[in-house]
Each structure stands twice: as structure tokens, then as C-alpha cells.
Amino acid sequence: MPQSTPAVRRPKHAKRNSNAPEELLRQIPAVDQILRQTAWVQLLERFPHGAVVEVLRSQLTRMRQQARLGKLDREAFGRALEALPESTRLLLEKQFLPSLKKVINATGVILHTNLGRAPLGKAALERIHEVATSYSNLEFDLERNERGRRDVHAARLLTRLLPAEAALVVNNNAAAVWLALNSLAEGGEVIVSRGELVEIGGSFRIPEIMRKSGAVLREVGTTNRTRVSDYARAINKNTRLILRVHRSNFRVVGFTEQPPLQELVRLAHKKKLRVLEDLGSGCLVDLKSSGLSEEPTVEESLKAGVDVVTFSGDKLLGGPQSGIILGRRKLIEPLRANPIYRALRVDKLTLAALEATLLAYLRKDERETLPILKMIFAPANEIRLRSERFVEKAQNALPYNSGISFQIIEGKSVMGGGSTPGESLPTFLISVRAASYSAGNLEKHFRTQLIPILVRVEHNQVLIDLRTVFPTEEDHLLNHLVLLLNS
Ligand SMILES: *Cc1c(COP(=O)(O)O)cnc(C)c1O
Prior knowledge:
17 strands, 42% helix, alpha/beta, 7-stranded mixed beta sheet, binds pyridoxal-5'-phosphate
């Protein structure tokens, strides 16, 4: 039965020093006694017994430590004891919330690697939902009434979209590169230019992936210049592949040289070798009209004669995390037959989302339906208009003398996520300055909301780039801004 006994017991001997640690510690009721009180009974209805006890015990331990150190006087101790049900509830609620959650990206970094890269389009979500919540023909050939292969679904669309005979999908591009190297060059040599020995995101480094694939790296040329003749000289009877790696996240400028893909292909084919290209981003559309000029497309690579290309599904393609491998059937087959392929293959949810993403390209409505491309192709003027409307609404919602100043300034959005290094898109930024908050405080406040809002901070102002904010998120952003600045 719930009891509403007071949390703090009356000290029995009034003469004792009631602030003495041992006296305070004596006031703590036994755990099972605490749990019989009404507030705790309610908590036990919502959370598992073990979790409630664990959180309660850890809080009591902390209180005991503080009391022993003399950090709590009798009053503070009593208050802490009384606040226990509420503080326990908050801690438990946090424990039972997922820690992976939505954030609002107001930074203007479109493919933010730390923020999950490409957000999926609506169609991808619907496909995931349907395939995830029912049975599917993942590995069943409905026409022949026999066991089928999971990779046919995406491969059918990829080979229609792009000039390649065969396709394979694995967990990410790192897996794709490893699988290609291991299947096509294990025990042999792979020639790579010294200007392309890249590191992506801390752990993907070409020399290390190469070593783990069992292929031997043969570096040629220099950091800034590599010629076809450098590759030609390195070819020997152990050579299996020439590898080209897209410089996804850096640029080499100045006195530079890199042979055109066609020339590398010509050399390789003359010597009966294959060219493997790690394209990184896997762009399927021409980005030039958006203002980004350096990103090669998958089609260009295949048309140049590259035998196998690999790229990420969640970079410029705008789909789910995956690694896509395209090429001649004869070269893709060994990858599929590799026993490790089983460990690298994707699940049905990824395939469902990938199919929906590829269908957008086939229907040619990718710029209207894939969030990544919508953001890239949004004209700066459109962002200026959205920003102006946003600021107007914010000013209307704030008191006249709020001490907040808004300004709309020109700025740059960047691709991020290992693509179009050094390039940017013109945008407009909302600059927010508050008389009573530093920009750092504002930034932290936004970041620690239930739905965290990530902004840029520059020159003691908060900068918001609406390019990467979904229009449906604008009201939420606005409400938070007004709530905070009004408080
Ligand atoms: C991003 C990238 C990778 C790694 O791709 P993931 O999909 O993150 O595994 C490998 N190579 C290049 C050139 C890249 O840009």
C-alpha cells in the first residue's frame, strides 16, 4: 500500500548536532521503505523495478558522499531527499529515450558526416515502412517460384540508370573498396598515385584498406604530379589493378598533374589490366548549374572505360548508407562470390530505401523529391526569401525592446561529407545577436533542446542557414528562438 510518510525522519535526539554527517545519513530511509511512498509507487508503474532501484541507489550514494564531505547541511539534505522522486523520474525518462534522434541542421553543411549524411526522401521512407512491416520477396523469385537473390532489386535499377552490366550493393563504400580489392587483387599489386592516398573521416585510409585486402600497394608519382608514364613504369607481372581514388575532401592546387581517366584506362587495357575507381560521392546528376563544378559523375567514369567503380549511397546520391559497385559482369561476379560478401551485404531496409531513391532518378524527378538535391539546387534567392519571412515572424513574436537583432547576410553553404572540396554554394544567413546572451550561450541552448538545433557561431553571432533546414522544421526553430529570447 502506498504510504505518504515524510521523506525526512525527525532526528530522535535533538541535542545532537543535526548537521553532522552521520546524523544526516541516519535520516535516509531504507530503499524498500522509500519505494512504498506514493510518488515511488507511481514511478514503479512506469519503469522497471530494477531501473528505479538502480537510479535511486546511485542518487543516495551521491548524497551520502556529499554529506560525508560536509557539502550538504541539514536543510539542503532534506530538500535533496524530498526531490528524489522527481530527480529519479527525470533520470529514468532520459534512460528510456533513444539517444539516436532527430536534430535540426541549421549549419548549412549539406552532407554533414556527423549528422547522418543524406536525409532520405519520403518515398524511401514509405518503401522502408512497407518492406519492414511485412514479408517481402527479398530473396524469392516470384516468377520462377524459387529462391532468388537479394541484390537483383537494386541492380535492376542501377544497370538501367547507368552504363554498367552488373551491380552489387554492400554496407558502405569502404566495404565496396575493400571487397573489390580483395576479390580482384589479393596477393597482387595495385598501383595508386601518391596524390590519391587519401584518408576519409579518420578511419578509411587507402594504404590500410589495401593492406587488409591482401593486395600490395604500389605507389607512383608524387603528391602533386603523377603522369601516365609513372603508372606504365610500375606495371609488372604481379600487377592486378590500377586504382584511381577521388580526392573527396581535399584539393591539390598549383603545379599539379593527374592523367585523364581515359588515358589510364587505355594504358591498363593495353596491358590487360583493370581500372578500379573509388568515386567517393557517387554523383548521378550534373551539379554545374548549382554552382558546384568539380564533382565527376558515375556515368562519366563508366563512359571513360573504368572497369569497376564504387561509391557511397548516402552522399550525393541522396539514399541510405550503402556502397554501390558497378562494372562488367565478369568482374562483379568474383565480388559476389567472395565469402566475405555475405558479411558486407545490406539488409532489406537499405535495399527498399535505395530502390526508392534510384526510382526517383529513373522517373527524373530526383531534384524535386530527394532532399539532398533539393537543398543543393535551392537558389540563394529562395533562401533569402525564406530567411526574410523567418525574421519577420520572429520580430513579430518578440517584444519591441527584446534586445535581439536579426540581420540577413550573404554567406556560403558547403557540401561536406567528402564531396566537392573547397567549393561552396552562395546562400543567405540569418545572423542573431542577443544583448543578454553570448553567441556561445545561444549555440549551447539550441544544441541542448529536446530536438537539438545545430547552428554556426562566427564573430559572436549565431548564424542560421535555412538551406539545410526543412521548411517543415522552420516553425519549430522559430518557436524555440522566440521562447529562448523571450525568457
Ligand atoms: C566517403 C568516401 C569513402 C568512404 O565511404 P563510406 O560510404 O563512408 O564508407 C571512400 N572513398 C572515398 C573517396 C570517399 O569519398
